[in-house]
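re: ur question from yesterday

yeah so i grabbed the chain u mentioned. its 146 aa long if i counted rite. heres the sequnce exactly as i have it in my notes:
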Amino acid sequence: MLALIQRVTQARVVVGEETVGEIGPGLLALVGIEPDDGDAQIARMAERLLGYRVFADEAGRMNRGLGDTGGGLLLVSQFTLAADTRSGMRPGFSTAAAPELAEPMFRRLVETCRQKHTGGVETGRFGAHMVISLVNDGPVTFLLRS
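ran it thru and got these structure tokens back, copy pasting raw so excuse formatting
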């Protein structure tokens, strides 16, 4: 499982004309599910999303996690993160989990984060064409693997 996280002052996901997920200050996480991912990867990624220290403390150092700040978390499934880009000029998607496997895993990740985080967890819409807008704060962007 991979997550590209970005510290944001705001982010939202629109499908068609409808806003389906929106947060203020917090993290936007684009999540890629791989075929061998399971419960252990879900638990570890939830822990990292909520605890990864990307927010400033009183001294201005990145020492606070999302759980410390109470900020929002916007989770967006993005199978292209798990693409094989090592060769050629076109990505291969055999390294990404099939939708019938990825969707329930993504939903379990969302539920795990909702159970552990009181700051609000929003999502995009699995499998939909989404338009994501964000204001990256920093910029601060990290690629996490579970």
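noticed a couple things. Residues 69 and 113 are 15 Å apart (CA to CA). also The two ends are 6 Å apart (CA to CA).
anyway ttyl
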